[in-house]
Amino acid sequence: MIFWSLSFIWFKDANKNFPPITIIFIRLLFASILLTVFLFVTKNYIKIKKGDLKLFLMLALFEPFFYFLGESFGLTYVSATLGSVVISTIPVFATIGAWIIFKERLKSINYAGIITSFIGVLVFILNTDGNISFNIKGLALLMIAVLSATGYNLTLSRLVGTYSPVLIVSVQNLIGTILFLPLFFIFDFKHFISAPYTFNMFKPIIELSVFASCGAFILFAWTVRNMGITKTNVFTNCIPLFTALFSFILMGDKLTVQNIIGMVIVITGLSMSQINGNKKSIDEALVYTGKTA
Q1: Contact status, residue 83 vs residue 135, Cβ threshold 8 Å
Q2: What is the dihedral of CA 72, 74, 75, 79, to 10 degrees?
Q3: Residue 293 domain flag
Q4: Do the Cβ atoms of 116 and 262 come closer than 8 Å?
Q5: Does some domain include residue 91?
């Protein structure tokens, strides 16, 4: 979640010099090369079952393809902090999806924690007059990202019991790179090859590749494998808190008393959502996702 929270700041930095599709394509290309080399050196490649190919394609379509399109273009209209807050609603949608499809259940206090955490997010972004300011177009694009992330979560849960997190993320990034290649050539290639560049201009994209597209996704997939969809996704509520803190430290953004109160409420809800780890619900989730060992 720390890596993903920083990704909003890195994207804003990269967007000063590159359009969204270029950022996404280079980010995925570099991440794909990095993970492919790692798997080749460690000899951890295994053959993907024929029946799972469509799941990997769905995974990549949800995220990175549709998710990154929604998130990246959405962030051109809203601040990094507000963007991270909208993304933090993913647990609500993921919980509903896991309940409907996989019958994943938690205890009442866990659900209360999810609601409390979401209330904390609302407190965090409310203006002093009680209103929430946002750009409609940016919000709509970010909601595409949220729904795509929900689909990604549900598809990922079908794969984590069979394949390693590194392999899953490597394949999703590779397919995502292929999906974004035509868009890059159609919309951005001419501008890309004609503009002068420096290493510092590419630095935030490299950070996005290494820490967000590789590190964060691998850690997330590993956690879904061990904790289930719902409990893992609650941690997404930490993203706006971390983003606000890093925006305050790195970019000089303001941090108010109201923001701090919102953070405390979110952390309280997060703690409630993890209380008394309901082993039964996790075991049931693993059965429904096909995890056997």
Answers
A1: no
A2: -160
A3: no
A4: no
A5: yes
Q: What is the mean pLDDT of the chain?
A: 84
- Count Cα neighbours of 67 within 13 Å in the Cβ-side half-sphere: 23
- Domain that includes residue 92, residue range: 2-288
Which regions in the chain score pLDDT beneath 70? Answer: 104, 127-134, 274, 276-293
Model pLDDT for residues 212-235, shown as the tens digit of each residue? 999 999 999 999 888 887 788 878
User: Which token pair is 286?
Assistant: 């693993």
- Using alpha carbons, select from 282, 228, 262 the residue that is nearest to residue 84: 262
Give the total number of structural domains in the chain: 1
Distance between CA atoms of residues 218 and 165, nearest Å: 5
C-alpha span between 289 and 293 (Å, rounded): 12
What's the rounded Cα separation, in Å, for the pair 61 and 31?
Answer: 17
pLDDT of residue 256: 80
How big is the CA angle at 87 (ends 65 and 148), to the nearest 5 degrees?
Answer: 30
pLDDT digits (tens, 9 = 90+) for 39-96: 989 888 888 999 999 999 999 999 999 999 999 999 888 877 778 777 777 877 777 7
Residue 94 lies in a domain: yes
Asked whether the beta carbons of 204 and 14 are under 8 A apart, the reply is yes
Give the list of residues 6+ apart from residue 213 with CB closer than 8 angstroms, or none: 27, 28, 30, 31, 64, 169, 173
